[in-house]
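Lay summary. Proteins are chains of building blocks that fold into shapes, and those shapes determine what they do. In this project we predict the shape from the chain. Here is one chain we studied, written as its sequence of building blocks.
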Amino acid sequence: MPFNDVGALWLQKAADYAVDIRKGKIPACKYVKLAVDRWFNDLENAHKRGLYFDEEAAKKYFRFVARYCRHSEGEWAGQLIVFEGWQCFVEANVHGWKNADDTRRFTIVYEEVARKNGKTLRLGAGGLYYLEADGEPGAQVYSAATKREQAREIFDASLAMVRQSGALQRRLKDEEHKIRPIGRRGKYVPLSKDSKKQDGFNVHAGLIDELHAHPNNGIYNQLRSGSASRRQPIIRQITTAGFDRNSFCYKQRQYAIKILEGTVINDAWFAIIYTIDDPKDWDKENEWIKANPNLGISVKLKSLQDQCKEAKDNPEQKVEFLTKKLNIWVYGVLAWMRMDKWHECKNEALNGVSLFEELTEANELFGCEAFGGLDLASVEDMCSFSLCFPEGKKRKLFQRAYLPQAALERRLKDGDPTLEQYRESGHLVVTPGEVVDYEFIESDIRLACVRFDIKAIAYDRFNSSDLVNRLASDEIPMVQFGQGFYSMSAPTKELMRLTLT
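And here is the predicted shape, written in a compact code that computers can read:
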């Protein structure tokens, strides 16, 4: 097939993959389904936000890989890379979506998939594209890891592709520890935390492999800050599951899940996670493809069967099997709430209604019985006040949060735009200064007591303050509520029951 047709073929494979996931023809976990739902929703609605899908841009990337990039190891050594449908879907998203000004939409990519699914090879091909064919003058590309030998894995995959392609050798200079365009500025080098030069980067593309191994956000922040002057930079994070739920990778994963679930809107992030839905199904063969989309290709079923058998007899091997073969964060916390069920509880009539200002006498809740919850937390962290209105077997919930201006600015500076939408909707009150001004919270509580029949307001006694004492002295029913298992178990179970039913 002529190479100018490969782009169209692979783009069609991406579209077919999305359709097959939606129809259930290909087993997939909830996060992959959510990524596919986002794809279809964006194709229908993203133009309203100034976004569009550029088929030619996606085809251009596919043609580059199909023409120049070869395997260097294993049974396909020397053969040109051929993307599977799931790989076409990921790369079509990453390289096809554009902003209104024709720049790349997705500048941050988070991808989680089990080992041996070809992620390092795919990033190696991407590194060469960003250096040579992305249309960026003087492109600087970095493969990144905590140690130099790890950082070289992606780079060495790229280097092997250059050495196997006469066409690439005529355009790129192989310097063993660096790849340079011939006759043009630019470079592609491996980067690690022990690299001699840590500043002065002008990053067009940063490729981070096995993000779970990074103890902190140091290299990520280094690449992000180094890309600030580029018109359309890209940072790609790709990883298998790890063990540390306090790690930077796990925090990135949590943020990616919020994007997939729709609780956070961030058009600059692409996220996809391949794993199994229920860890209890770890030994069921029909579940394995959910974490291993390349099952039967680069991942051999017989190998997984053998490792599964060993895992049943050896607890240490079970941990390895779950994390690296099924992409399960063994020591990470599983999501407690079924977010799909939680979203079903959304009341469109009340969606976006601020907690107090719009609940006036004209509203059906005016004067109704209500119960409150107050979390004062730290004076420089987020505080919140919630109201629950029982209506027979149902409940209506409203919540308002409070955050100091300085704390909001720190979060925005760290690249977390989540809170801006809640400030605009009125669900987040930003108070001036470095610490929360409790007068704002007190004012809202007193207004709630005027408009509703407040039966009790629960608060954590360990974070109580003069605010609680002032409210209690005015006969507002303040009730201490412990944060331990004894106090929290029953109400959280009831919340789950109400959500599921």
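What the prediction tells us: The mean pLDDT is 88.
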